[in-house]
From TrEMBL, chains A, B:
InterPro entries: KR_dom, NAD(P)-bd_dom_sf, Sc_DH/Rdtase_CS, SDR_fam. Pfam families: adh_short_C2. Gene3D superfamilies: NAD(P)-binding Rossmann-like Domain. This is 3-ketoacyl-ACP reductase. Residues 218-394 form the Ketoreductase domain. Belongs to the short-chain dehydrogenases/reductases (SDR) family. Keywords: Oxidoreductase. The keyword NADP does not apply. Its EC number is 1.1.1.100. The keyword Nucleus does not apply. It comes from Micromonospora maris. NCBIfam families: PRK08261.1 (NF006110). GO terms for molecular function: 3-oxoacyl-[acyl-carrier-protein] reductase (NADPH) activity.
Amino acid sequence: MSDRYASFVQSGAGRALVKRLGLPDPPRLRRYAPGEPILPGPVLLGSASGGRLTEPVGRILAAAGLALRDPATAVPDPTTGRTPDSAALVYDATGITDSTGLRQLYDFFHPQARAVQPSGRVIVLGTPPAECAGTREATAQRALEGLTRSIGKEFGRGITAQLVHVTREADESTWTSLEATLRFLLSGRSAYVSGQVIRVGAGQATAPVDWERPLDGQVVLVTGAARGIGAALARVLARDGATVLALDVPAAGDELASVANEIGASAVQLDLTAADAPTRLAEYLAGRHGRVDVVVHNAGITRDKTLGRMDADRWNQVIDVNLSSQERINDLLLERELIPAGGRIVGVSSIAGIAGNRGQTNYATSKAGVIGLVDSLAPALRERRISVNAVAPGFIETRLTARIPLVVREAGRRMNSLAQGGLPVDVAETISWLAWPASGAISGNVVRVCGQSLLGA
Amino acid sequence: MSDRYASFVQSGAGRALVKRLGLPDPPRLRRYAPGEPILPGPVLLGSASGGRLTEPVGRILAAAGLALRDPATAVPDPTTGRTPDSAALVYDATGITDSTGLRQLYDFFHPQARAVQPSGRVIVLGTPPAECAGTREATAQRALEGLTRSIGKEFGRGITAQLVHVTREADESTWTSLEATLRFLLSGRSAYVSGQVIRVGAGQATAPVDWERPLDGQVVLVTGAARGIGAALARVLARDGATVLALDVPAAGDELASVANEIGASAVQLDLTAADAPTRLAEYLAGRHGRVDVVVHNAGITRDKTLGRMDADRWNQVIDVNLSSQERINDLLLERELIPAGGRIVGVSSIAGIAGNRGQTNYATSKAGVIGLVDSLAPALRERRISVNAVAPGFIETRLTARIPLVVREAGRRMNSLAQGGLPVDVAETISWLAWPASGAISGNVVRVCGQSLLGA
């Protein structure tokens, strides 16, 4: 086996695969720090002819203080043949109404492909295929996904690529949420998000007074806040200006108190699977603030076993904690109107919920259910102007993954376009973005935070 | 690197991953041969309480000559503790209307998990979440996907697992197409299809006189028929009773003639990218049979290069052959009404079209476009009762893949639940099933033929 592996490593075409599985020096990702500019360099904004988003996006980027590169300077130098680097490429592809028009993508991206800075960004803007005027346009718009996902796998050096679908029925909230999305995607907040399709619709979105405090005045409940991703999330939400209600089971009380004290949050000890938990939570929220603007269902457990060896408790606990208890809480908080218009619900799914996983029939079922919850609750709450989204983390460095044997862990870390595992803060930043009042016109999305993992369905 | 790999191979939990990447003895898959029974053993049919499909599916399975196991015999032997093997587990989950009801899945599958024969089948029947009565039901139905995808990854030994969504507005055509789907999925025809979600709707489906000749009397056009998957497809379609029109470029004329002669097909030499190709093809079809019941757009090319090194010809050719020319042909054949009511269009996408791929921005864009074509054309043609679907092959053993360096090829072969590459016949069988008149109520599906590849989006 070892010899076979050695020849694999040394084979020409093998190197590309090995690079992903065992790269010794993965790129250092640009991450967000308060006060820093969104991007360390200029944005090149391109457009297919007839694009409807070029003008509003140009305005948004300029208002956000980003430097737009003059397209005349984004051409190869006649002496060196090199195109000057951009920190981001943003391309309005909404003008492409037929597959023959896809050629415009090539014309824009081919000369820029090697002129993007490390940890740079590629964002393609499109129209949701379901909103397209005819089959030719819908086909061409759907084709964009193949381009962005390939760019994410190809460009390397920490560069991410996304497709952002913007509704044709844009209202003021659409532009606010598009600004929130561009600020998130262009900044280091989205360091570990790549290869995603994000839909910005209409709804109720409110721009913050200060984009450095996008959650100012917002009451945010986070479950499972004592440790791991939940603790990182509580910190990011507090940094972004939220009033955080940090909830966890009584057994994690000490850790929870420590997180809550650190960030000035309220600690809430509650076992969410208890029969009276929804009522007790609703009463707490009603008494404390009279409302909760954002509910983040971060609490989740694993109880892995292959199905033949799994006892019923393992099945029941995982389904109950990860899915059923969250449904009971949503339903009661909604029934008592504790989540106001413009509120947000954010769930946590998983790659296992998308692709399934060996030894995780219970977990994957619960996490696929979270996707179902987003898909079904988002349209049901449109009238009430409450958004529902989820994140789906990939390989994230936590206490759980630290226990995986070294080499399996290394493989898991490498099997993505960024050649490394993500950090809890990467998931937290993505949840925070979905929790912003400015993101209210984004609903029904499941956004993977996986470095564009190779794994999927 | 070698030592690290060796410790990887020898580590406890590492073995599971290695098993997939380098298994020395992948299971021998059961494949279809005319005259053989659909399954080599009995089917165990289970049901969640209140399931609406148990009765019709029981009738379909009995009519297809399958032996239904008495549930009383599908329990552990009191002496040995072993449950007798079934060749297939079929479970009607449509009665699950809340996540708490998911427990019924555990109750059925847990005792059967180690009692499925090699190359056996697991099929879960559900309701499309979009048709569910409320968010609780939609959530629970969506959760089924996590279960079937995990079972596909967990059961091993050539066992496949699928989720089949059956419309609530079932008509006679729905039952015919459900029968076609169950016959396909239970038989060796679906050897390399696993982890899929297949939607059976309403429409126009016609059961064959003889299920061994499901394409009897049907005129089927296959492009790219001279070699590889296309040649295998021409053979399978002819075996299934079709009148095959085998098309390829003039340069492949000799190979095309050889395939056509072998199966009694008509050879059609035509460059589909030529400006007059749609007209010439329409005239040929009008003159020959006055119609074409099925069009299979199998012709496709790759011209791999990273985007920065790709010349414009590579981009244009791939988009034109794989996407634009197919749109021009569809549109003209539909305009001239050469595809009758009940007709079928089948395209070929790719995992690259789903997940993107390094060095394939052109190919992935074209193949994502094929998914867009299916998504948009299927509803547009519902009124005319013409179905539109596609297959998305994974790692298939062809002349192209034979050129990949050994160890990379081995990795590609192993990174799926069946631990091996598929054969061209596996793709051909899947396309043929979608081409059957009995499958007419299946539309808007993209079915992967990838052995449940780990790769995805």
